[in-house]
Amino acid sequence: SATLYSSYERPEARTAALLLLIVAVLGLLYLLVVFTVDRDLAFIFVRLRFGVITASYLTFFVFALQYTGSNWLTARKSGLILIVPLLIQIVLWTYPDGFFAEWTLVRSNGYSRERITFSIGYYFHWIYSLLFYFSGVAMLVNYAAKVDSERRKLITLLVIGIIVSLVTGSTTFAIGPAPGFRVTPLGASVCGLCIAWAVNRQRVFRLLPVAYDVIFQSMRDAVLVLDNFGLVSEMNQAAHAIWGAAADQFTGQPVGQLLPDVVPLLSDPPADQSGIELKIVRTDKTVYYHATAHPLAHRMQRSGWLVILRNITGRKSADEELRRAYQRYDELVRNVPAMVYIFRMRSDGSFVFDFVSDRCQEMNGYLPAELYQNADLALLQIMPEHRAEHLARIRQSAARLTPFRSEVLKNIDGKLCWRQYFSTPQRADDGCVVWHGIELDITDRKEAENKALELMLERERSEILLRFIRDASHEFRTPLTNIKTSLYLIERQDDAEKRRYKFSRIEQDVDRITELVNDLQTMARLDSHYAYTATRFDLLHTLQQICSPVRLKAETKNISFECIFPDQALIVSGDENDLQRALWEVIENAIRFSPEGGVAKIEMVQTGTKVNISIQDTGPGMDEETQRHIFERFYRKDEAHTTVGFGLGLPIAKKVIETHGGTILVESAPGAGATFKITLPLAE
């Protein structure tokens, strides 16, 4: 069991396992001789026994070399060592008389005993084996003086076993040639027991010593082993790297020569082992270390110190860079024309400020400490009409983790000021949402924007008014001129039929003026906070009512008028008259611009919760410039106003449709006609 166990351990343990196996074979060969009756067979066992003895001292010597860590044994030396054992084996098996002067087997009481007289070959074998045994013992004893007491005990146990084996083996000379039992197997058994005991009970071949040594030498931290007097006993490779070639000179010297600042740690170590910071100046750079001292104790008594130096140069550089970054950040926060803040929303929905820059007092009239205690102070300054939307934006940003943007009007000490917020949220480990952002004073910008907007609106109003006066003058002048001319002719016309015709023309011009006035009134109503009383009605029925008179108008121009409607009713909610007017303007526009013999097509379909209406004509079409302005009021592509209309029909339709939650757009190209697409929501 010891052999199998030790074979899993270090290299010297495998050699020891082989040695245990040799001891077992040696004892077995002694027993075989005792119980063998045949002389020739017994003599074979005897010669095998001496071959095993030769292997034992060679194996022990190799074990001692491996255990003490010696690299003395090389391939060439191994070959030289094996010369004598090989010669001995040759003599044993080819010329036994050179080893045994006399060998006989005597039977007594059922057992066989040997009568032996040795010749010179045996004595040469014995001296050679003693040389290797004593060399191995000397190496172990020398090694025991350098190790700790626990390992020293284990080595002593091994040496005792070897000495017992040597002493019992030497009794061969005392017994002489007389037949009798040999005590050599007993000594070998004692030796084997000592080795087995050390392997199984004391674990002399355990991996920990090797592991400790590997760990010690491979540690990135520099480690110095001091004795109880503060003298340097050993350094690892990392420590050697600090002082280079001069490191070996410090072995046995006081640690104060290397690290004067460490001496106070040995005399009065801190209870928390926090250590100290050291600065070691090299020729090329300065290196910082964190030094700690740890007492080494054996049986409750301090036997030395372990000083560990951890390189913190990188951390120091990072700390310095972080300090400079904080300094730059602090300067930036102080100089930026805004209040910098870190805002947190807890899991219960409450708010708290984690950080507020000093500009808070200048911008909001509060000290940062006041906002730390009560974050609601910042919200209470926001005007009520902006506060709800501001909070809604905060909660939306928290839910989606999207950037927060808000512009609010605040009452700060009785003065109305505009503030703009920019911040980016992130979710903290505790589940809270944290915003890092700034608050800007945009009061001056808002005032400038309002002034610019007022100027723009005033300019737009002036342009609209001028365009209206120009277009209205043109549109009104034509029918008024016609009326005036007709009246002049009526006064001078005696023919009743011609007088009736002129009166008819006057009525048409009056109707045209009335229509234009109605359009202007409708546009004015839509611009004046247009609101309607919603009712539920069938949009399909409304569209069918529009199509009846439009079809007659299309027939007068020989236009093919096609309507594609669904079978079921499509109920919408809104002002039926206004929607009917809007649809009429778009459909009538398609008939107006379609040439004679052209095609006009109306299609109505339901898509989900919406109704889509498509109005298509084969008119001249529109370029992109016209499409951009087609829904602008008073817009007329032909400056000569040769086409009928006042430029208000499509703007009225767009205003009504969008007020009812719908959309209208146009798709067209020159020479390809136009398609107006209207979308309206169905009633719930």
Can you characterise this structure?
With 684 residues, this protein is an alpha+beta fold. It folds into five domains: 2-206, no CATH class; 211-317, Beta-Lactamase (2-Layer Sandwich); 336-441, PAS domain (Beta-Lactamase), CATH 3.30.450; 448-516, Orthogonal Bundle (Helix Hairpins); 530-681, Heat Shock Protein 90 (2-Layer Sandwich). The chain is built from 23 helices and 19 strands. The longest helix has 49 residues, at 443-491.
Helices and strands in order:
Layout: H1 2-6, H2 11-35, H3 39-67, H4 75-81, H5 83-94, E1 100-108, E2 111-118, H6 120-144, H7 149-175, H8 184-202, H9 208-218, E3 222-227, E4 232-235, H10 237-243, H11 255-258, H12 263-267, E5 276-281, E6 286-298, E7 301-311, H13 313-335, E8 339-345, E9 351-356, H14 359-364, H15 368-373, H16 376-380, H17 384-400, E10 404-412, E11 415-427, E12 433-441, H18 443-491, H19 496-527, E13 535-538, H20 539-556, E14 560-564, E15 571-574, H21 576-593, E16 599-607, E17 610-617, H22 624-629, H23 649-659, E18 663-668, E19 674-681
Parallel strand pairs: 14-16
Antiparallel strand pairs: 1-2, 3-4, 3-7, 5-6, 6-7, 8-9, 8-12, 10-11, 11-12, 13-15, 16-17, 17-19, 18-19
Helix pairs in contact: 2-3, 2-8, 3-5, 3-6, 5-6, 6-7, 7-8, 18-19, 19-23, 20-21, 21-23
